[in-house]
Amino acid sequence: MAMGKEDDNRCKPVHDGHSEPLFETRRKTGRVIAYRVFSVSVFACICLIWFYRVTVPIKIDVNRTGIDRLIWFVMLVAEIWFGLYWVVTQSSRWNPVWRFTFPDRLSRRYGNDLPRLDVFVCTADPVIEPPLMVVNTVLSVAALDYPPEKLAVYLSDDGGSELTFYALTEAAEFAKTWVPFCKRFNVEPTSPAAYLSSKGNGLDSTAEEVAELYREMAARIETASRLGRVPEEARLKYGEGFTQWDADATRRNHGTILQILVDGREENTIAIEIPTLVYLSREKRPQHHHNFKAGAMNALLRVSSKITCGKIILNLDCDMYANNSKSARDALCILLDEKEGKEIAFVQFPQCFDNVTRNDLYATMMRVGVDVEFIGLDGNGGPLYIGTGCFHRRDVICGRKYGEEEEEVKSEKVQEMIEPEMIKDLASCTYEANTQWGKEMGVKYGCPVEDVITGLAIQCRGWKSAFLNPEKKDFLGVAPTNLHQMLVQHRRWSEGDFQVLLSEYSPVWYGKGKIGLGLILGYCCYCLWAPSSVPVLVYSVLTFLCLFKGIPLFPKVSSSWFIPFGYVTVVVNAYSLAEFLWCGGTFRGWWNEQRVWLYRRTSSFLFGFTDTIMKLLGVSESAFVITSKVADEEAAERYKDEVMEFGVESPMFLLLGTLGMLNLFCFAAAVMRLASGDGGDFKTMGFQFVITGILVVINWPLYEGMLLRKDKGKMPTSVTVKSVVIALSACTCLAFL
């Protein structure tokens, strides 16, 4: 959080140095104590719930003795899991800290004598990651408030696309106008598209001239993207770069393509404040595994070490543009602090988005995760590395342990530019053979969430990390605009995190004795996403199926045993709502988040769990799925109106649809029994009525998409029919059991 002391005088500083620090770490002790009292009370009620399940006998139907006992036992196991998982999640809330940076002190102390900064931007597919969006990210970081002769921007194109290269060459030309314009007029944000969008028609004559140049560039790039080829006049203009593409080159079969478009240390570029711009597409061959984004990052590490060799590295996803030009200075306040900064390996900024709807339809902001959980992890040794918006020390990501002497950067590496042909081998398919790259050096291989295990390995070498969450978000990206995109993304994340738990890098044994218990539990919170899907699914299904059959699972509302159940349900959700509102959300946003987490747990996480089990059995292999950053106009309008987008056939939608319809049918049957005069049902199963009814309400957008909507974003008819048939069949079979 980059702000001055005056922003929160209730925070207690813990820095005791006499010299002016570049940052301070503060704790809000009053709120922490209040939360600890709250969490202790909740845990006491959880223990009472366990005690109830173990000691209070179930009312057994003589005709269903075995089934009743089995259901009771399954409920006990699920509640034990929920309780223990809740305890694990408290690790990220037990010791929160806030970071406050002082960039003015950094400027007074260092001036422009700052370390070299290399920015890595990664893209992989010009169709779902449009080149115009990619170069907006590149231009935004090229205009950072940083000495241009010490700044370099590298674009890694794993798609090996001429379209992306063409877009970057156009951006390199436009940068000669855009970067000086940003520096002269303190433009924020420094992404041309974002800046012009924020200004609308309120541009002066100078800005309008720049805007017109951008529109012309954007039109050329979008025309080329629409046609799927680079115009011949562009090939003639930028001919040298395009000669590196073979006639038969494809996305998965091509040689290394490396082009230094701008040398930021040449006199003519220094005069106009343009940083170094480099395009890299590493070699790919079908017979060699390329290790996805991790492999691209490691190729960038090696290639950049021979060109600019920045001591600090910022890595960004191609859609994550710089929203604050001073973000690098905020990060350096921590990394260059004489006292506490020496133990910090990387500074992580939150992953935020500029296209989130007012009520965050798909819960992509994860407000509580950013404003509470990551801050809590920071107090336990540092946040996780999340793969974007992160400033690293180069030597640390390349393997240096905490306490080892820092190697000096050799002057000849940065005094003159090396010819690209001399270093292309560093990005070849065979370079890493029989080396420690992907193991002890660079980003780790072998997991869909390579960033998580890389950050864990760094922390296990003795380093800490820091989390900065300023009020003005430093980096903004593109959030998924339909439900399927979001579910696929979380399926990959949950699968990868679960694989980490079962791998040699499991925080349970890999981190034992190397990092604190709080940080180990913090990692486990995410690693347990996938297996948590099973008890959530079983518990919710049993609740409404037993309501359908008239089997009570909870104590009567009039019983004293109901108090712990009611307390945990009401108080935990009330605190969750209050916390969400405190983090800047809305009530509808909180409600949307409850729905989305239910869908994630019963689809994304469940599929991530089964995918991991299948992989362990050797039945399938992990795949890296790129989230599309493109939506058609109608879908975009529905997203703005906060209408949930389905639109495609998916096994995850079939599962959600079936569970939703099964829940609806069970609730309808129970209401019909109640309406027929059987009031005993509500007296003995009132809590089940409430839970099932809430699930019906929370699923309303699902029912709407399946049964009421006619637009293209509705649930596909085939999925709706299958879901209804399966749910009706299950209810029919259950009725005769």
What are the salient characteristics of this protein?
single chain; 737 residues; alpha/beta; 8-stranded mixed β-sheet; 3-stranded antiparallel β-sheet; 27 helices; 14 strands; 9% strand
SSE layout:
Layout: E1 12-13, E2 23-27, H1 29-55, H2 65-89, E3 98-101, H3 103-110, E4 117-123, H4 131-142, E5 151-157, H5 162-185, H6 192-199, H7 205-227, H8 232-237, H9 239-242, E6 257-262, H10 267-271, E7 276-281, H11 292-305, E8 312-317, E9 321-322, H12 327-335, E10 344-348, E11 352-353, H13 367-378, E12 390-393, H14 394-397, H15 411-415, H16 450-460, E13 464-467, E14 475-477, H17 483-502, H18 507-510, H19 517-527, H20 529-549, H21 562-582, H22 587-616, H23 633-640, H24 651-675, H25 680-698, H26 700-708, H27 717-735
Parallel strand pairs: 4-5, 4-8, 5-7, 10-13, 11-14
Antiparallel strand pairs: 1-2, 2-3, 6-7, 8-12, 9-14, 10-12
